[in-house]
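Deliverable D2.4 — example input (C-alpha coordinates):
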Protein backbone atom coordinates (compact mmCIF):
# COMPACT_ATOMS: atom_id res chain seq x y z
CA UNK A 1 0.00 0.00 0.00
CA UNK A 2 2.90 2.35 0.69
CA UNK A 3 4.53 1.99 -2.73
CA UNK A 4 1.78 3.79 -4.72
CA UNK A 5 1.80 6.52 -2.10
CA UNK A 6 5.54 6.98 -2.52
CA UNK A 7 5.14 7.01 -6.30
CA UNK A 8 2.36 9.57 -5.96
CA UNK A 9 4.56 11.80 -3.84
CA UNK A 10 7.41 11.47 -6.34
CA UNK A 11 5.09 12.30 -9.25
CA UNK A 12 3.69 15.33 -7.44
CA UNK A 13 7.18 16.58 -6.66
CA UNK A 14 8.20 16.14 -10.29
CA UNK A 15 5.13 17.95 -11.57
CA UNK A 16 5.86 20.75 -9.11
CA UNK A 17 9.43 20.96 -10.40
CA UNK A 18 8.20 21.09 -13.99
CA UNK A 19 5.70 23.87 -13.27
CA UNK A 20 8.19 25.79 -11.14
CA UNK A 21 10.71 25.65 -13.98
CA UNK A 22 8.05 26.66 -16.51
CA UNK A 23 7.08 29.61 -14.32
CA UNK A 24 10.70 30.74 -14.03
CA UNK A 25 11.16 30.57 -17.82
CA UNK A 26 7.94 32.52 -18.24
CA UNK A 27 9.03 35.27 -15.83
CA UNK A 28 12.59 35.51 -17.10
CA UNK A 29 12.03 35.18 -20.85
CA UNK A 30 8.33 35.37 -21.63
CA UNK A 31 5.62 32.94 -22.78
CA UNK A 32 7.43 31.84 -25.94
CA UNK A 33 10.28 30.46 -23.81
CA UNK A 34 7.99 27.95 -22.11
CA UNK A 35 8.69 24.87 -24.23
CA UNK A 36 8.98 21.22 -23.26
CA UNK A 37 12.50 21.12 -24.69
CA UNK A 38 13.63 24.12 -22.61
CA UNK A 39 12.05 22.74 -19.43
CA UNK A 40 13.63 19.33 -19.99
CA UNK A 41 17.01 20.94 -20.53
CA UNK A 42 16.66 22.91 -17.28
CA UNK A 43 15.70 19.77 -15.35
CA UNK A 44 18.33 17.56 -16.95
CA UNK A 45 15.84 15.10 -18.44
CA UNK A 46 14.66 14.27 -21.94
CA UNK A 47 11.73 16.12 -23.46
CA UNK A 48 9.75 12.89 -24.06
CA UNK A 49 9.93 12.21 -20.30
CA UNK A 50 7.67 15.22 -19.74
CA UNK A 51 4.87 13.50 -21.63
CA UNK A 52 4.39 11.20 -18.63
CA UNK A 53 3.04 14.25 -16.80
CA UNK A 54 1.54 16.46 -19.51
CA UNK A 55 -0.03 15.41 -22.78
CA UNK A 56 1.38 18.37 -24.67
CA UNK A 57 2.87 21.81 -24.29
CA UNK A 58 -0.65 23.25 -24.39
CA UNK A 59 -1.60 21.02 -21.46
CA UNK A 60 1.39 22.25 -19.45
CA UNK A 61 0.73 25.90 -20.34
CA UNK A 62 -2.91 25.55 -19.32
CA UNK A 63 -1.87 24.23 -15.91
CA UNK A 64 0.64 27.07 -15.61
CA UNK A 65 -2.10 29.55 -16.50
CA UNK A 66 -4.28 28.12 -13.73
CA UNK A 67 -1.40 28.48 -11.26
CA UNK A 68 -0.99 32.14 -12.23
CA UNK A 69 -4.73 32.81 -11.90
CA UNK A 70 -4.77 31.19 -8.46
CA UNK A 71 -1.82 33.31 -7.31
CA UNK A 72 -3.49 36.48 -8.62
CA UNK A 73 -6.73 35.64 -6.81
CA UNK A 74 -4.84 34.93 -3.58
CA UNK A 75 -3.08 38.30 -3.79
CA UNK A 76 -6.36 40.11 -4.38
CA UNK A 77 -8.02 38.20 -1.54
CA UNK A 78 -5.31 39.54 0.80
CA UNK A 79 -6.03 43.07 -0.46
CA UNK A 80 -9.71 42.90 0.41
CA UNK A 81 -9.39 40.84 3.60
CA UNK A 82 -8.56 44.00 5.56
CA UNK A 83 -11.46 45.98 4.11
CA UNK A 84 -14.99 46.25 5.51
CA UNK A 85 -17.71 44.12 3.93
CA UNK A 86 -18.43 46.85 1.40
CA UNK A 87 -18.83 45.65 -2.17
CA UNK A 88 -17.89 48.96 -3.75
CA UNK A 89 -14.71 49.35 -1.69
CA UNK A 90 -13.75 45.75 -2.41
CA UNK A 91 -14.52 45.97 -6.12
CA UNK A 92 -12.33 49.01 -6.63
CA UNK A 93 -9.58 47.52 -4.47
CA UNK A 94 -9.68 44.51 -6.77
CA UNK A 95 -9.43 46.79 -9.82
CA UNK A 96 -6.41 48.56 -8.32
CA UNK A 97 -4.85 45.28 -7.26
CA UNK A 98 -5.33 43.82 -10.73
CA UNK A 99 -3.52 46.79 -12.28
CA UNK A 100 -0.70 46.61 -9.71
CA UNK A 101 -0.27 42.88 -10.33
CA UNK A 102 -0.32 43.33 -14.12
CA UNK A 103 2.38 46.02 -14.01
CA UNK A 104 4.63 43.92 -11.76
CA UNK A 105 3.94 40.54 -13.43
CA UNK A 106 3.97 41.50 -17.09
CA UNK A 107 4.98 38.07 -18.41
CA UNK A 108 2.27 36.30 -16.40
CA UNK A 109 -0.23 38.93 -17.51
CA UNK A 110 0.75 38.28 -21.13
CA UNK A 111 0.25 34.54 -20.73
CA UNK A 112 -3.15 34.75 -19.05
CA UNK A 113 -4.72 37.89 -20.45
CA UNK A 114 -3.02 38.73 -23.73
CA UNK A 115 -2.22 35.51 -25.55
CA UNK A 116 -4.27 34.83 -28.70
CA UNK A 117 -6.21 31.63 -29.25
CA UNK A 118 -3.91 28.96 -30.62
CA UNK A 119 -0.85 30.66 -29.21
CA UNK A 120 0.84 30.27 -25.88
CA UNK A 121 -2.23 30.80 -23.78
CA UNK A 122 -5.93 31.42 -24.15
CA UNK A 123 -8.15 34.12 -25.50
CA UNK A 124 -7.45 37.60 -24.13
CA UNK A 125 -9.40 38.28 -21.00
CA UNK A 126 -10.47 34.66 -20.61
CA UNK A 127 -9.62 34.63 -16.92
CA UNK A 128 -12.82 36.57 -16.35
CA UNK A 129 -14.72 34.63 -19.00
CA UNK A 130 -13.99 31.45 -17.01
CA UNK A 131 -16.16 32.62 -14.20
CA UNK A 132 -15.72 29.57 -12.00
CA UNK A 133 -11.96 30.14 -11.68
CA UNK A 134 -10.49 32.05 -8.70
CA UNK A 135 -10.04 35.43 -10.38
CA UNK A 136 -13.53 35.38 -11.89
CA UNK A 137 -15.06 34.37 -8.56
CA UNK A 138 -13.34 37.06 -6.50
CA UNK A 139 -14.17 39.79 -9.02
CA UNK A 140 -17.80 38.74 -9.35
CA UNK A 141 -18.31 38.25 -5.63
CA UNK A 142 -17.51 41.93 -5.05
CA UNK A 143 -19.53 42.96 -8.11
CA UNK A 144 -22.45 40.89 -6.85
CA UNK A 145 -22.48 42.72 -3.54
CA UNK A 146 -22.51 46.03 -5.39
CA UNK A 147 -25.46 44.83 -7.46
CA UNK A 148 -27.32 43.72 -4.35
CA UNK A 149 -26.77 46.87 -2.28
CA UNK A 150 -26.70 49.74 -4.80
CA UNK A 151 -29.17 51.14 -7.27
CA UNK A 152 -27.21 51.24 -10.49
CA UNK A 153 -27.95 53.36 -13.53
CA UNK A 154 -28.74 50.55 -15.92
CA UNK A 155 -29.17 50.86 -19.67
CA UNK A 156 -32.58 49.62 -20.78
CA UNK A 157 -32.65 46.25 -22.50
CA UNK A 158 -33.57 47.83 -25.81
CA UNK A 159 -30.20 49.60 -26.08
CA UNK A 160 -28.43 46.24 -26.18
CA UNK A 161 -27.56 45.47 -29.82
CA UNK A 162 -29.82 42.63 -30.98
CA UNK A 163 -26.80 40.78 -32.38
CA UNK A 164 -25.34 40.51 -28.85
CA UNK A 165 -28.41 39.32 -27.00
CA UNK A 166 -27.83 35.57 -27.42
CA UNK A 167 -24.27 35.89 -26.12
CA UNK A 168 -25.35 38.07 -23.21
CA UNK A 169 -28.20 35.72 -22.29
CA UNK A 170 -25.76 32.80 -22.04
CA UNK A 171 -23.35 34.93 -20.00
CA UNK A 172 -26.25 36.06 -17.80
CA UNK A 173 -26.96 32.46 -16.78
CA UNK A 174 -23.30 31.86 -15.91
CA UNK A 175 -23.19 35.04 -13.85
CA UNK A 176 -26.26 34.08 -11.82
CA UNK A 177 -24.81 30.65 -11.10
CA UNK A 178 -21.39 31.91 -9.99
CA UNK A 179 -22.87 34.75 -7.94
CA UNK A 180 -25.10 32.27 -6.15
CA UNK A 181 -22.15 29.97 -5.40
CA UNK A 182 -20.18 32.92 -4.05
CA UNK A 183 -22.93 33.78 -1.58
CA UNK A 184 -23.90 36.93 -3.53
CA UNK A 185 -27.14 35.64 -5.04
CA UNK A 186 -28.96 38.17 -7.18
CA UNK A 187 -32.61 37.98 -8.19
CA UNK A 188 -32.74 36.90 -11.85
CA UNK A 189 -35.03 39.80 -12.72
CA UNK A 190 -32.44 42.28 -11.41
CA UNK A 191 -29.65 40.90 -13.58
CA UNK A 192 -31.31 41.72 -16.87
CA UNK A 193 -29.58 42.06 -20.24
CA UNK A 194 -28.96 45.76 -19.68
CA UNK A 195 -27.06 45.11 -16.47
CA UNK A 196 -25.16 42.19 -18.00
CA UNK A 197 -24.17 44.50 -20.87
CA UNK A 198 -23.02 47.07 -18.31
CA UNK A 199 -20.81 44.53 -16.52
CA UNK A 200 -19.15 43.50 -19.78
CA UNK A 201 -18.45 47.14 -20.63
CA UNK A 202 -17.03 47.77 -17.14
CA UNK A 203 -14.60 44.85 -17.51
CA UNK A 204 -13.68 45.77 -21.08
CA UNK A 205 -12.77 49.33 -20.11
CA UNK A 206 -10.78 48.21 -17.07
CA UNK A 207 -8.97 45.48 -18.99
CA UNK A 208 -8.35 47.73 -21.98
CA UNK A 209 -6.75 50.47 -19.89
CA UNK A 210 -4.53 48.03 -17.98
CA UNK A 211 -3.45 46.31 -21.19
CA UNK A 212 -2.49 49.59 -22.83
CA UNK A 213 -0.50 50.55 -19.74
CA UNK A 214 1.26 47.20 -19.40
CA UNK A 215 2.45 47.23 -23.00
CA UNK A 216 3.25 50.95 -23.09
CA UNK A 217 0.68 51.60 -25.80
CA UNK A 218 -1.26 54.46 -24.23
CA UNK A 219 -1.81 57.05 -27.00
CA UNK A 220 -0.04 59.88 -25.16
CA UNK A 221 2.85 60.03 -22.68
CA UNK A 222 1.41 59.96 -19.16
CA UNK A 223 3.62 61.36 -16.41
CA UNK A 224 1.23 60.44 -13.58
CA UNK A 225 -0.33 57.09 -14.53
CA UNK A 226 -1.70 56.48 -11.01
CA UNK A 227 -3.78 59.66 -11.24
CA UNK A 228 -5.05 58.66 -14.66
CA UNK A 229 -6.11 55.24 -13.40
CA UNK A 230 -7.92 56.77 -10.43
CA UNK A 231 -9.76 59.03 -12.87
CA UNK A 232 -10.72 56.01 -14.98
CA UNK A 233 -12.18 54.27 -11.92
CA UNK A 234 -14.08 57.41 -10.93
CA UNK A 235 -15.54 57.64 -14.44
CA UNK A 236 -16.58 53.98 -14.33
CA UNK A 237 -18.24 54.49 -10.95
CA UNK A 238 -20.03 57.60 -12.17
CA UNK A 239 -21.24 55.87 -15.33
CA UNK A 240 -22.99 53.14 -13.32
CA UNK A 241 -24.37 55.51 -10.71
CA UNK A 242 -21.98 54.63 -7.87
CA UNK A 243 -20.49 58.10 -7.70
CA UNK A 244 -22.10 61.44 -8.36
CA UNK A 245 -19.31 63.84 -7.46
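Example output (designed residues):
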Amino acid sequence: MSSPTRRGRARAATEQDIRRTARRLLVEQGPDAVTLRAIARELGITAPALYRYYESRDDLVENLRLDVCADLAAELAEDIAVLPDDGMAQLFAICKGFRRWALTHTKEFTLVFASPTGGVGTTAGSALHRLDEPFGRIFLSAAGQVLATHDLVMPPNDVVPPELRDDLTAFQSELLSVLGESGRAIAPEKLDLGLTYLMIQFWARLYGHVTLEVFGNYPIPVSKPDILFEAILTDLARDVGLYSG
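The longest helix spans residues 2-29.
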